[in-house]
From TrEMBL:
ABC transporter involved in fatty acid import. Transmembrane domains (TMD) form a pore in the membrane and the ATP-binding domain (NBD) is responsible for energy generation. Keywords: ATP-binding, Membrane, Nucleotide-binding, Transmembrane, Transmembrane helix, Transport. The lineage of its organism: Bacteria, Bacillati, Actinomycetota, Actinomycetes, Streptosporangiales. This is Fatty acid ABC transporter ATP-binding/permease protein. The chain crosses the membrane at residues 29-54, 66-89, 155-186, 258-282. One of its GO terms (biological process) is oligopeptide export from mitochondrion. PANTHER family: ATP-BINDING CASSETTE SUB-FAMILY B MEMBER 10, MITOCHONDRIAL, ATP-DEPENDENT PERMEASE MDL1, MITOCHONDRIAL.
């Protein structure tokens, strides 16, 4: 009772939101409705003709009326042909409307997802989002092409058939209609079960694609192999796969049960009609053979639509459930949006001052603050280093500057303007972000670099590649700049990927650079190339670097030691060493008192340029 009460209004409100999706196609929908009404009504012509054939042409006194018979037979042959042709047109129109609505919905969902903050994506499985975009929106199309048109067609068929039946014989009509309530009740029960299973199947499908997406990506495979977890992943997959297979079987069988009910009713009622016709004849009511034949022919048109209608109502419900899943995403209100009075950052060449003032930050659904009163600043052209233990909050600070998250307290400003008052496009233009993981699209090298500034010419792309010390390497590939890279493309080394990413940011040419120096992805040989490229990139830009290289740290105008969400110490390398505090111990531990420049995967790069081999260390956190 309670669940029914809940499902009703929810479905109704979903339906209320679905209807407007069709508004742009009003004229087409009207045409489709007209065509459906036409084809569904034409169907009663032939059974009525059968009655005429029997009573007026075949079995008449003095032998068959051949002239009339030929006319009737020709009409009977032409009607299905005409109906078929209209049916084709109707299917075409319905499919077009369905596809257009689906296209609009997908566009809207994709555009909406693009406006959602990073937090939404860190909190949702990628496979799940893709499944809603691909499977759910796809499933919705059936609402239009199959479900909606089927409902209308079957209602029209049912009503027109009942009307025709009454015209032929009202007594037999009562017999035919008497079983309808039982039929409704049975199929409704089957429908409820079917809906539940359909929802579980959809969830299982999403879980499967999330699982394969996670575990069969390059990083996922790497992780599974490194930890020897392939067997565990395989078991997880097998279990979910088994669940899916079971659900599919159940769904199929529920459908079969439904079909069996329709079939039984289809065969039982004609028999009852014959019986009642016999009784009527015995009691002196005249019923011709043509009437009985026409009636039983009409009857197939009566039960089939009821069956279809009930089945479709089940489908409609599961389709509405799909709509619910889509609307659920569309209802996520992006909390990081342009303020109504947002401004563009002034385009001054000397600008780029970044200031964090008493910043507090808490991740969604995390009980405690990750940043607790962080204040720091980077003046135009300065290099500001963030150092500190893992989990201290350095990456979090770097996310707040381009507004990937909003502060929960305090403020972040650029050139004196609070970032919440800056138009996001202007913010993105002013800030360049180099992360540890250089993400490359499955596309050519040229396209990947050009992503930094889509309007850039090939010459400008090449210039950026040269400045990032990657041009010569690109030219070694057989296809040069047209080489396909990324997930399924040419495999690049960590250092090469980083330099491509640096070229991309160089082309973007931001005033402010946020740099998360890679910790372990690079081998000792690429490290120097990357360092040179980074030096070019930093140039005279304001740079905030999460620094792991001693050279970056020593060179920094200001070093901020971040610890437990606070700035624990702040100053230059020399002044901080003199304080003999946290920085001094970090310098001793991580950089071996200045002897280690940079810790790579294969060993340590020493400040004198030599390499010191090292046992692999366990990954932090
Ligand atoms: N999306 C998130 N949701 C919830 N908590 C998060 C999220 N991202 C990071 N955290 C938590 O916030 C804290 C700070 O993380 P952050 O990544 O900023 O540290 P970090 O100093 O950059 O560390 P590292 O040097 O290891 O990258 C950590 O405790 C981390 O677990």
């Amino acid at each position: 009772m309670k669940s029914n009460a809940g499902a009703g209004p929810e479905n109704r409100s979903t339906a209320r939101r679905v209807v407007p999706l069709f508004r742009p196609y009003r004229a087409r929908v009207a045409a489709v409705v007209g065509l459906i009404v036409l084809t569904s009504t034409i169907g009663i012509i032939n059974p009525l003709l059968i009655q005429a054939v029997f009573n007026k042409a075949l079995f008449v006194h003095g032998g068959p009326n051949l002239r009339l018979l030929v006319i009737l037979v020709v009409i009977m042959a032409v009607v299905p042909v005409v109906n078929g042709a209209i049916g084709i047109l109707q299917t075409y129109e319905t499919t077009r409307v369905g596809q257009h609505v689906m296209r609009d919905l997908r566009d809207r969902l994709y555009a909406h997802l693009q406006t959602l903050p990073l937090a939404f994506f860190t909190g949702t499985k990628t496979g799940e989002i893709q499944s809603r975009l691909a499977n759910d929106v796809g499933g919705v199309q059936s609402v239009v092409t199959t479900t909606a048109s089927s409902i209308l067609a079957n209602v029209v068929i049912f009503v027109s058939t009942v009307v025709a039946m009454v015209i032929i014989s009202w007594q037999l009509t009562i017999v035919a209609l008497i079983t309808v309530p039982a039929f409704f009740w049975l199929t409704k029960a089957v429908g409820e079960r079917r809906r539940r299973v359909a929802r579980s199947t959809q969830e299982s499908l999403a879980a499967m694609s999330a699982l394969s997406e996670e575990t069969l990506s390059v990083s996922g495979v790497l992780l599974a192999k490194a930890f020897g977890n392939q067997a565990r992943d395989t078991t997880r997959y097998r279990e979910e796969n088994q669940r899916l297979a079971d659900l599919e079987v159940r769904q199929q069988m529920i459908g079969q049960g439904f079909y069996a009910i329709v079939q039984s009713f289809l065969s039982i009622t004609p028999a009852a009609v014959y019986l009642v016709a016999g009784l009527l004849l015995a009691h002196g009511t005249s019923i011709s053979a043509g009437t009985v034949v026409a009636f039983t022919t009409l009857q197939t048109r009566l039960y089939f639509p009821i069956g279809q209608l009930l089945q479709v109502s089940v489908e409609l419900r599961s389709s509405l459930a799909l709509f619910d899943r889509i609307f659920e995403y569309l209802d996520v209100v992006p909390d990081i949006v342009d303020a109504p009075d947002a401004v563009d950052l002034p385009a001054t060449a000397s600008g780029g001052r970044v200031a964090l003032h008493d910043v507090y930050f808490r991740y969604p659904d995390v009980p405690q603050d990750t940043l607790r009163g962080v204040s720091l600043r980077a003046d135009p052209g300065q290099l500001v280093a963030l150092v500190g233990p893992s989990g201290a909050g350095k990456t979090t600070i770097s996310y707040l500057i381009p507004r990937l998250y909003d502060v929960t307290g305090g403020s972040v400003s650029i050139d004196g303007v609070d970032v919440r008052q800056v138009r996001q496009a202007s913010l993105a233009a002013a800030i360049g972000f180099v992360t540890q993981e250089s993400y490359l699209f499955h596309d050519s090298i040229l396209a990947n670099i050009r992503y930094g500034r889509p309007a850039a010419t090939s010459a400008e792309v090449e210039e950026a590649a040269r400045a990032a010390y990657i041009h010569d390497r690109i030219m070694e590939f057989p296809d040069g700049y047209d080489t396909i890279v990324g997930e399924r493309g040419y495999r690049l080394s960590g250092g090469e990927k980083q330099r491509l990413a640096i070229a991309r940011v160089l082309l973007h040419d931001p005033r402010i650079l946020i740099l998360d120096e890679a910790t372990s992805a690079l081998d000792t040989a690429s490290e120097r190339e990357v360092q040179k490229a980074l030096d070019t990139l930093m140039g005279s830009r304001t740079t905030i670097a999460i620094a792991h290289r001693l050279s970056t740290i020593v060179k920094a105008d200001v070093i901020n030691v971040i610890d437990a969400g606070r700035v624990a110490e702040s100053g230059t390398h020399d002044s901080l060493l003199r304080q003999r505090g946290r920085y001094a111990s970090l310098y001793e531990e991580q950089f071996d008192g200045g002897r280690v420049q940079w810790r790579c995967a294969g060993g340590d790069v020493m400040t004198d340029g030599t390499i010191r081999q090292r046992q692999p260390q366990p990954q932090p956190g």
